Amino acid sequence: MAEVDKQSLRLLLGFDYGTKQIGVAVGQPITGSARELCILKAQNGVPDWQKVEALIKEWQPDAIVVGLPLNMDGTPSDMSERAEKFARRLNGRFNLPVFTHDERLTTYAAKGERLQQGQTGGYRQRPVDALAAALLLQGWLEENSPG
């Protein structure tokens, strides 16, 4: 994939890839912030591509960031390969630059954040995938901010 001038990006979508659901967040480099958007259901890691397309048409991102679930020692996990395949499919389908970002501990951090907000368990009813997507996108923005 061609190199992209990260300074020219105005809006990004972040995806926290999972086999049952995929968290989605939106972020802006100019503010350096990201927020939860939604959760997409997935069947064995395959999303409803029409819903992904609808999000891309609605938000018109300049690029996409997909979380890369690495092992704690930094080596690729079984899910890393699937997340990279998902990233390649996003790039191929929508012809947008797609970056991957280390997402270690984002789900843990998202659960911690929800715990501080008073949520105790119940993550099936109130999943944290979109918040995890926002945290990984926030991390990418911080790592790639100018200056």
UniProtKB/TrEMBL annotation:
Where's it found, cell-wise? Cytoplasm
Q: Which InterPro entries match?
A: RNaseH-like_sf, YqgF, YqgF/RNaseH-like_dom, YqgF/RNaseH-like_dom_sf
Q: GO BP, one example?
A: rRNA 5'-end processing
Q: Which domain of life is it from?
A: Bacteria
Q: Name one GO molecular function term.
A: nuclease activity
- CDD domains xref list: YqgF
The identity of this protein, by name, is: Putative pre-16S rRNA nuclease
